[in-house]
Amino acid sequence: MKSALVCGAGGFIGNHLIGRLKENGFWVRGVDIVEHEFCETKADDFVIGDLRDPVVCEQLMDRQFDEVYQLAADMGGAGYVFVGDNDADIMHNSAMVNLNMAYAAAKAQCGKIFYSSSACIYPLRNQLKPDAPDCREDTAYPADPDSEYGWEKLFSERMYMSFMRNKGLSVRIARFHNIFGEEGAWTGGREKSPAAICRKVAETPDGGEIEIWGDGEQTRSFLHVQECIDGMLRLMASDHCEPVNIGSDEMVTINQLAEMAMDIAGKKLTIKHIDGPLGVRGRNSENTLIEQKIGWRPSRPLRDGLEKTYSWILEQVEKNGTGA
């Protein structure tokens, strides 16, 4: 039986990944500083541990795992990443985790390690136009990420690649583009825009008003978590070692995302645009390279995933007594 270690197993993507690995017949160990907030883990072994501690990381590697997935990071939506107040924690916490895990995985001679990077590594200059962002993998340099979160992700990409060159670590790196779905943060400040918008729509009575940061014309693409995992597993099974995008190329404005959520909910709401952290003006996943290298690209429309996400968030809103 193959074995896998999932770091960040108490988080959104990690929890979904464990479920898929179990379906595929893996023995799975999960590790996180907290348990999952919304459901019980399906991991065979779940360790509460702080990956900033190198002793914890080395103790986890008590077997030669076939696959290691390093998803753990200090992160959140625009209200956490782009306000500037959390930069030191973001860089310190995530860098410590990655330094420790790369060293422990190389020392234990694990089969392969997956590192979840981010579209935030792309240069700000390439994302100034909402209708024409350029997020091709080969545009990452000269480097100019839009945030300290992006700088740490780019550093860690280079660190993992150096461990591959010098320590024999077999590395796979994906630059995630706005992964969303059920059983993720939907309130509290760390939620991303699809969850935040779904929550606002669910909480607001028909005919009411919701708030959107900025003019709402900033563009993004959003990938449902199950398609993200499809891409991750295909990448892990491949021989491709350079960073690739994993994201949707169905680009929408934030206003369009809000209108889609309203339509799913069957509500007519007005949008009030307010000041708030925005990130880049335009971002969209460019999927030519991943399709060429591993024969994969997303196949399902944004609305399919948003319908599932809205339904789940509506349940949470009703449970908490904040629904319209």
Automatic annotation (TrEMBL):
InterPro entries: Epimerase_deHydtase, NAD(P)-bd_dom_sf. The keyword NAD applies. One of its GO terms (molecular function) is GDP-mannose 3,5-epimerase activity. The keyword rRNA-binding does not apply. It is an enzyme of class 5 (isomerase). Signal peptide: none annotated. Keywords: Isomerase, NAD. This is GDP-mannose 3,5-epimerase. It comes from Pseudodesulfovibrio piezophilus (strain DSM 21447 / JCM 15486 / C1TLV30) (Desulfovibrio piezophilus). The lineage of its organism: Bacteria, Pseudomonadati, Thermodesulfobacteriota, Desulfovibrionia, Desulfovibrionales.
